[in-house]
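Class, look over these structure tokens:
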Amino acid sequence: MNIIIAILIFSLIIIIHELGHFLLAKKNGIGVVEFSVGMGPRLFSFLRNGTRYSLKLFPIGGSCMMLGEDEENDDPNSFGKKGVWARISVIAAGPIFNFVLAFVLAMIVVGNVGYDPASILQVGEGTPAMEAGLQEGDVIIAMDGDSVDNGREVMFHLFFHPTTEKDVTLTINRAGEELKITITPEKNADGEYKMGFSPNLYRTKTIATTGEKMSALGVVKYSALEVKCWIVSAVQSVGGLLTGKVSTNDLAGPVAIVDMIGEGIDSTKSAGLSAVVIQLLYMSILLSANLGIMNLLPLPALDGGRLVFLIIEAVRGKPVDPKKEGFVHMIGLALLMLLMVFVMFNDVRKVFGLS
């Protein structure tokens, strides 16, 4: 059952991504050969205005095949015959639609369960946090100058900036008053530096807990902040992989995501169907935002790699040799497939506890 739910979530995210390409292609007069929901053999299809709309056997994702997208074509409606900025808009639309989807889903979640500020739930006795004056109920709004909008951003900050003996400066809101508190972490028996406080991580653990309700404008604001949170964390993760701060063992692929979805369902099913649905929507937010960022990476075969070539064309005033670009994308696709195999193997090893 968890696998079916995961497939449906992945499919929704990918279909919205392809819908972005499709709508902008149509808007710019680019011929779309086929727009399909699912993969594999066609179950049903019809032709309208030169585009075949298909429902395929396997409910995994979808595709948008544009005229002349991957080969030279002299048709005036082919992808390559349109202006460079039109083509840029078509390629960028896929990731942008993923961000739009994440925002729409975030409004549903925030509108139903509210906003979860980075409030302090507990301060340990005799800990550096207590000695610095941190109190239960304080709300963290910044850490070392980096803004914090919810409890997850506290977790992300500590992950990407592990605590050492170096002072950590918290900007907090206490009953409407903004204060700065400086905490000097202490090393515990395990050799880890700890500050001694627990922030609100309700939505990271389970969505079933109700947050703070707000106005319609507040829902829009905090939905945007929710999406921003996951976009920033995805960008930081990529940067961490490049700098070595994030291990390849931290990469999650389809197997790990299915496992994560299963854990999310198990953690909320006792609270009822509505809680399970909200939890799945929340997971869809982070997956959609992450897919948008991953697709914008300037790597061959991804939308970001295609955008690099289009931007070069816009600057030079002429396109890169299509054969050379095609070769780069082919090599990039091969490397991407190898990465997917590695991530899949890593997933299986972690999920099933293999050494």
Remarks:
- Residues 204-210 have pLDDT under 50 and may be disordered.
- The chain is about 50% helix and 20% strand.
- Strands lie at 32-48, 51-66, 120-123, 139-143, 146-147, 168-174, 177-183, 186-187, 193-194, 197-199.
- The chain has two domains: 2-112+277-351, 117-199.
